[in-house]
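Aim 2 progress update. The chain analyzed this quarter is reproduced below.
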Amino acid sequence: MGEALRKEGLEELRLFPKGPKVWVLPGDSSDDIIRFFWPHAYRRPWGFSYSGAIGIEIPKLREWLRSHKAGNEGLFQSCFVNYMIANEDILGDFCVTHSDPVPDDLWAGLLRDRLDKVPTKLSNLVATYRRNREELGWLAHPEWRHPWDFLLKWCANPDPALDVPRMLPEGRIG
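Predicted structure tokens:
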């Protein structure tokens, strides 16, 4: 799969030191958003399942968190938001039996297509979220309401006094 992802223009890197390797769809130097795929490959008794997460990271937000909320990143421990591709109709079915070849070029192309749909500029990402969040797919699922609400507040005024959403001991987000 790695070679097929490279052929689609993705680059393997770590978003954080000692973090997991992800496949990033590079943009230009003025991009505000990092679009990535974090693979999870599984060998099963019957064959092979290729899953993982599609996500976005916002370096400007990460810098702000490091400057003002170091050690207190709340819900933003690994990235802004992500979702498991198993939830998608097309991407969730990357499975083959032992006797079948892995259609890695097809799978890599479908992953690239999904990452291409994510805006590369923060202003465009926010505008898409406000206008029609369905364009963002599972990245804008209601379970991610708290990170998105925070992002909207942060974009309007990146005040260091903003409370970062976090998981409370009883499981609620606060």
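The CA atoms of residues 93 and 158 lie 40 Å apart. The helical segments are 2-7, 59-68, 104-116, 122-132, 145-156. These observations will guide the mutagenesis experiments scheduled for the next reporting period.
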